[in-house]
Design a protein that fits this description.
The chain has one domain: 3-Layer(aba) Sandwich (Rossmann fold), CATH 3.40.50.300. The protein is globular and about 55 Å long. It is 57% helix and 13% strand. With 178 residues, the chain is α/β, with parallel strands linked by helices. The protein binds shikimate-3-phosphate. Shikimate-3-phosphate binds next to helix 1. The site of shikimate-3-phosphate (S3P) has 11 residues, from helix 1.
């Protein structure tokens, strides 16, 4: 069974939803930002501050290459992870790409007050620009769930229902071919 990879902008709920989703499937959960923290012994904020974004992206690339080899894992990516086509390719080769979407309003109310995301330090306009630019990339997911108005359990249920439908459809196509 392939991995389930959660993609989407900061604050869409990738880590919270991912943990709960993994629990309900009895799969392992991993968060690429946490993994980068383990490997480097630095928080995301510290890596950005001391070494810059380029270094963060190269650590992220290494972590993604390794995690993509795993199976039956729920992987929560960072908001910028899949913008690198190499990361997208590696994750999609062995996983189903599930997009989490949220309105800017929902994102600001969830994480606007937090201090742990270097890329949220800019003006509201700059964040809105980043969010807009990235939508095209996130829209390439196999399917997307809008988390703006939903609680964690509702999002998890919707993901499970849509995964179930996909597995059923793929299975039916295989049977039809035989
Ligand atoms: C980033 C998102 C963050 C983290 C880093 C960069 C981004 O992860 O990887 O601060 O480029 O959007 P979350 O999406 O988990 O906040």
């Amino acid at each position: 069974m392939r991995n389930i990879v959660l993609i989407g902008f900061m604050g869409t709920g990738k880590s919270t939803v991912g943990k709960r989703l993994a629990q309900s499937l009895a799969w392992d959960f991993i968060d690429t930002d946490c993994e980068i923290g383990e490997v480097t012994n630095l928080s995301v904020t510290e890596i950005f501050r001391r070494h810059g974004e380029t270094r963060f992206r190269s650590e992220e690339r290494i972590v993604v290459a390794r995690l993509s080899q795993q199976e039956q894992m729920v992987i929560a990516t960072g908001g910028g992870t899949v913008l690198n086509p190499l990361n997208w390719e590696a994750l999609a080769q062995n996983g189903i790409m599930v997009g989490l979407h949220a309105s800017l309003e929902a994102i600001f109310s969830r994480i606007g007050h937090k201090n742990d995301r270097p890329l949220l330090k800019g003006s509201k306009e700059a964040i809105e620009k980043l969010w807009t630019e990235r939508q095209e990339c996130y829209a390439q997911a196999d399917f997307t769930v809008d988390t703006s108005q939903k609680n964690i359990d509702e999002v998890v249920s919707e993901i499970l229902a849509r995964l179930g439908r996909r597995i059923y459809n793929e299975f039916s196509e295989e049977v039809a071919k035989d």
